[in-house]
Amino acid sequence: MSAHLDNLSTDEKYMFRCIEIAKNGLGTTAPNPMVGAVIVREDKIIGEGFTSAYGGSHAEVNAINSVSNADLLKSSTIYVTLEPCSHYGKTPPCADLIIKMGIPRVVIGLKDPHEKVAGNGIKKLKEAGCEVHVGILQKECEEHHKRFLTFFTKNRPYIILKWAETADGFIAPEPTKRGEEKKPFWITNTKSRQLVHKWRSEEPGILVGTNTVLADNPKLNVREWTGKAPTRIILDRNLKISSDYHVFDGTQKTIVCTEINDSERYIEGVIYKVLDFKHELPMQLCMVMYEEQIQSVIIEGGLQTLQSFITANLWDEARIFKGANNFTKGINAPKVAGPILVHTSILTDQLTIVRND
Question: Carries keyword Metal-binding (predicted)?
Fold first, then answer.
């Protein structure tokens, strides 16, 4: 967050608080946005709320319900990171509740791009006589809502590339020759690997290619963290992966993207999408995830899959671990360029997060 509390106006200070509490919904609210709401009276917070897990109450409802004396709402301001909804979904419109409770002033981080809202909530509040301010800490709210905004403005998921490379720049050792025993290897330490499981719990999708599954037999779950496991998206052009691999264990929703249109070869319980692997595959994969309401995805490789998204310029950030060990020779790590958001140490590992601008 670029804002510094000492330099913020009163409205910005409370919007900053909205963003902070909204993060509690990360990994649970999708496809709803993870909104934060704060209610203030006489420069004192009297209520707070963030979006419940999908199907539950929105942030504004939770904040209003947290106020012990509802009469205080009639002389309060409600701050919210995203425009209050104005339509009926799984819950009634939040704009209607704000009006009903008589909250006279509404401060909003940014307008909701969703076609069912798109300014209608703001319009409804103003027509009811509310004093409405829009665009408070807008840049910070856009960063917070980056998954939701990308999905509804670009019609694709927010794409996170992730890989680990050695100190000398390899993501894997040289492939073993036929007849040689394959030796297991780890580039990163256990703390970094646990962080990856935390990330998986925060995103609704995880995508890997055929070679990664065949070589590593990954589970792609969150066994080292508490949270919801992501939907697995597996690229298997020729259906080479057999049913005994972990990705087909039935514990998570799994989508296989293939060129084989033969239901007799499909594994029960797995969703299959037939694609043309010769033409703009990353864009086709984005379309699949958009149709499946997957608002963000971690792409964990291997090299061919990662590089295809880099070449197509279909990525939003790259999370790159650099371990302390060396392979001397092997498979080169991909390269990306962009502003560095994070550069930090995790024990012996270095983590760099790069944004695609």
Answer: yes
Going by their DSSP bridges, the two strands 317-322 and 77-82 should be labelled as: unpaired
CATH topology of domain 155-355: Dihydrofolate Reductase, subunit A (3.40.430)
Fill in the amino acid letter for 34. M
85 assigned binding-site residue: yes
Helices (H) and strands (E) in the chain, counts: 10, 16
Q: Which among 54, 32, 29, 53 has a CA at the least distance from the CA of 116?
A: 32
Residue 119, amino acid: G
Cβ-contact 45, 1 below 8 angstroms: no
**pTM, 2 dp:** 0.91
For residue 273, which of 286, 289, 256, 287 has the smallest C-alpha distance? 256
- 76's tokens: 């309060």
Reduced to 3 states, what is the DSSP secondary structure of residue 243?
Answer: coil
Q: Where are the domains of the chain?
A: 1-149, 155-355
Q: In the CATH scheme, what is the homologous superfamily, with its name and number, of domain 1-149?
A: Cytidine Deaminase, domain 2 (3.40.140.10)
Render pLDDT for 11-43 as a digit per residue (tens, 0 to 9): 999 999 999 999 999 999 988 899 999 999 999
In three-state secondary structure terms, 171 is: strand
Q: Quick count: other Cβ atoms within 10 Å of Cβ 245?
A: 17
Maximum Cα–Cα distance for the chain, whole Å?
A: 77
**Strand pairing class (254-258; 158-165):** unpaired
Instruction: With H, G, I as helix, E, B as strand and everything else as coil, classify residue 6.
Output: helix
Model confidence over 95-146: pLDDT tens digits?
999 999 999 999 999 998 877 777 888 999 999 999 999 999 999 999 999 9
Catalytically active residues are 60
φ/ψ of 274, rounded to 5, equals: -90, 120
Q: Which residues contact 215 (CB under 8 A, 6 or more apart)?
A: 182, 302
Asked if residue 94 belongs to a known ligand binding site, the reply is yes
Q: What is the DSSP string of 46-98?
A: EEEEEPPSTTS--HHHHHHHT-S-GGGGGG-EEEEEEPPP-S-SSS--HHHHH
Q: Tell me whether residue 200 is annotated as binding.
A: yes
Is residue 223 a known part of a binding site?
yes
Q: Could you give the count of Cα atoms lying within 13 Å of 25 in the half-sphere of its Cβ?
A: 31
